[in-house]
Design goal:
This protein has one domain: Rossmann fold. Helix 1 (15-29) links the parallel strand 1 and strand 2 (33-38). The chain is 40% helix and 17% strand. The chain has helices at residues 15-29, 53-56, 64-73, 91-103, 124-136, 163-190, and strands at residues 2-7, 33-38, 77-85, 88-89, 112-119, 150-152. The protein contains 6 helices and 6 strands, in the order E-H-E-H-H-E-E-H-E-H-E-H. The longest helix is centred in the last third of the chain and has 28 residues, at 163-190. The chain is α/β, with parallel strands linked by helices. Strands 1, 2, 3, 4, 5 and 6 form a 6-stranded mixed beta sheet that branches. Keywords: Flavoprotein, FMN. This is Flavodoxin family protein. Residues 1-148 form the NADPH-dependent FMN reductase-like domain.
């Protein structure tokens, strides 16, 4: 099993990284391979809706987005983590996710997704919902924990004091491992669910 982890914080040793480290420790105990990519300190532009990816099979801009796509294709699960900025995820992370999920032309169905959010105080649930939408539009089951997947802290190291948040991260990793293994067994026995026609689109304005 392989899990790709995206850290949307610009701080490589901040509270968001600490939250992911809790998950990495559990994944290692479960024999799950992980790779963490720091996204928040990169220069990543947003999507310009050029639709070139439809013919290229990748984003027209040659940057981290296409590198992440290659790694995601080979992964069984994806963890997306972000600090909260104005009740929303880091804009750099959102730019990457918009382009990644739109331009990647491989089947993401049944790859397990999990979102992790870190905040000083508020905005965690809004950001949690924002990140989960990338999974639900792609047929990716979402791993849950004992609580919403958030941890609290402002200055680096403060998240170490959030005992409930730490337990939430660790249980999330265990649940995600179980779900990935269960899906692998189901895929082996039953295959993937049948898809409806991809040509069925309904516009609200004609």
């Amino acid at each position: 099993m392989k899990v790709l982890m995206l850290n949307g914080s610009p701080r490589p040793k901040g509270n968001t990284a600490f939250a992911l480290a809790q998950m990495e420790e559990v994944f290692a105990q479960e024999g799950v391979q992980t790779e963490t990519i720091l996204v928040g300190n990169k220069d990543i532009r947003g999507c310009i809706a050029c639709d070139r990816c439809a013919t290229l099979g990748r984003c027209v801009f040659a940057d981290l987005v296409n590198e992440v796509a290659i790694k995601l294709k080979d992964a069984d699960g994806l963890v997306v983590a972000s600090p909260v900025y104005y009740a929303s995820a880091n804009g750099t992370l959102i730019a990457l996710l918009d382009r990644l999920f739109y331009s990647a032309h491989f089947d993401m169905r049944m790859k397990v997704g999990a979102s992790v959010v870190c905040a000083r105080r508020s905005g965690t649930t809004a950001t949690f919902d924002e990140l989960n939408k990338y999974f639900t539009i792609s047929g990716m089951p979402i791993a849950s924990s004992r609580y919403w997947n958030n941890i609290h802290g402002m200055d680096a190291g403060e998240a170490t004091q959030d005992g409930e948040g730490i337990a939430t991260m660790r249980e999330l990793a265990r649940n995600m491992t179980f779900l990935m293994r269960s899906i692998a067994l189901g895929r082996e026995r039953y295959g993937l669910p049948e898809r409806e026609s991809a040509d069925t689109y309904t516009n609200f304005v004609r």
